[in-house]
Amino acid sequence: MRFYEFESRKIVELAGIPVTEYGFCKTADEAKAAAERIGGPVVVKSQVLTGGRMKAGGVKFADSPEEAAALAEEILQLEINGHIPRGVLVDPKAQVKQEYYAGVVWDGTAKRPLMLFSDMGGIDIEEVAEKHPDHVGRGHVSNLLPISDYEAKKVIAATGVTGSQLNRATPVLARLARLFRDNDMTLAEINPLAELEDGSFVALDAHMEMEDEAKGRQKRLLEGELSIEPEDTREPYEPSEFERSVKAIDSADHRGVIQGKDHGFEGNLGLVIGAGGGSLTLTDAVRSQGGKPANYSEIGGNPSVAKACGLAKEVLGKEGVEKIAVMMSIVSNTRVDIVARGVIKACLELDKDPAETIAIFRIPGAWEEEGFKILDKYGVEYCDRSVSMWEAAGRAVAKIQGAEA
Amino acid sequence: MSILLDKDFTFIVQGITGREAVNLTRECLDYGSNVVGGVTPGRKGREVHGVPVFDTVEQAVENHGSPVDGSVVTVPPAFTKDAVFEALEAGMKLIVIVTERIPRGDVAEMVELADSKGARIIGPNCLGLIVPEVCKMGGIGGPAKDAAKAYAPGSVGVMSRSGGMTTEISSSLTAAGLGVSTAISIGGDAIIGSTYAELMPFFEADEQTKAIVIYTEPGGRMEAQLSEWVSENDSRLPIVAFMAGKFMDDEEMKGMSFGHAGTIVEGAEDTATQKIARLEAAGIAVVERIDEIPAAVAERIGG
Amino acid sequence: MAGGDLYGVFIEVSIEDAVASDAAIAAKLEEVCPVDIFAVVDGKATVVAENTDECVLCGLCIEAAPSGGVTVRKLYDDTILE
Predict the structure, then answer these.
(1) What is the pTM of this model?
(2) DSSP states of A198-232 as a string?
């Protein structure tokens, strides 16, 4: 789950990391009041979950509260990469002496959080790491032991930073590592971490992401401190009608799991496929053989007939879908006969001939003998494990292309 | 020979009274595995397919009368860390975590504790592992008769981020007469107990294993780690890899995850294209089609 | 979505009158079926038509009733579940 900048700022602040006086505003009047409170020149920043704000005109400087209000009015209505801003953040235009970078990410190989620090802040850390590797310090922290300040100090000192700067930056990085672990973050970045003219350190911009699986146990932060509504899921894009319908069918019945996605798919071959790895393999196999999938889907566990039927009906209901391919890797939990009943029922309920509509049925495994009897009765083409997933996908593609010709 | 499991291997099932766990227990018993106890707090005194149920892991070990080798953990995500810690404290050396949707921080904690105790974790979000005709630990392959159909003893070690694909690939190796030495469903999450590279030394030391097949997906650095391991160690084992999810490289799919939680692409290095290039640079054969695996293996081990 | 819901496409379940009226057996049928094909209505076992296609062929209902009391017919191959 991604956080807006104003939320990340609050998270950093709650962890005891110094920030500037700032204001999150939803109207021009609020922006004016924030600018008055802050005093002096301010910067007004669009609050969107997308990059490239600066280029799009979503970040502007103001010398007076009136100007801040005018800019806020403008920015609040500015759509950036299809995102409408949640509000604006009004920040003092800080007098920065030096910009640093402080970050914590997961290192999946070491299976530990990794602290990163650089004295070249304000730019992309991956770029710094590539061009100036000696300006990036790194260090893992334990998942179990308390995080000590000296661990952060070592990482910072490795970049050559010393003196009062080292002593000021150390608690910032250590606290960032603690908040990363305590709040189930997958990314916690302060960039830039600024040293101001008076020598103090403040987080000028922060970027936080939390693991979705941990949202349940982070309610106190999410709903308590940040007032984020549980239904504010922040998917990278708006779910389509197909996606919402499949989700509704899935949650209405606890038996088995179905998922459907059609973002980025615009083909004519509907895919009723599973399970996790099987769906990835089959989607590739269809595309590599010239097929155009209308959607992606996953059948997992042991769904009811009604659920399999519901998924197939939704796929068949998509515009431009002429046929469906029903395919899975060898199943041991999902039942072949139950899925066969479901997809055939979907055809019948939509007044379609299963033999014509189902391009191929390739689900080998549990209860396959029973499933094949059902498919025989309705004249649906099926195959067992001796026909590979690649070949089955190829047959489905050939059929739909034959139908087009 | 085999890796991690043998005929005398004993294990318990934590969360044994759950619906899926009951099935899994039945399947393992039918396959000939030594399931010596089960744990569900508050259910002491019950039996699941003849396996006694206890409140604590310690009670289960005590009842067995000698150390127990491992545990299959299938409890809800919020309780998994506690269950795994309990098993590690009781001296278990191999833990299979079936549960999915466990936060990464918890998994990392479990792995760190396991490392400090010389224990190994497989999973989470996995189906376990199987040594054909010897032992099955977890739901891998399904009911004993289905598992027998897909897994015949042989020379190929299989590691897969997808449980279902472990069986699909093993079945094709069985059909081709190559068979399987040990097959491991390693799990689909971003952080897992045992990666390809971490399991390679076991296969390397196993005389029965003549080649390795891996099934892989976008997301994470596990394949890069394997490539490094292969380059640094003069492995005797040819490796054949299959990469699924190439469609996720498309621009419209950015930021989405498909199939497993671990498929989320967090950097340029974890796309399918990058991974294939890296594997190939390390001398690992990456096949385009799933059905090319048996022939690619046969070619590399001389039929 | 176009098209109505169809019932009883794959499975047909019937209960002998005498068996359906036996309160003890009726209750037992309702209890054993994992997909709720049986419901007790006015003390009598009845078949819930919209659930018959969910039948998992477990045979528990057949075991719960005296021989021939419950019949599960697979319409796709016209055989009766033993």
Answers:
(1) 0.93
(2) TS-EEE--EEEEE-GGGGGGGHIIIIIIS---TT-
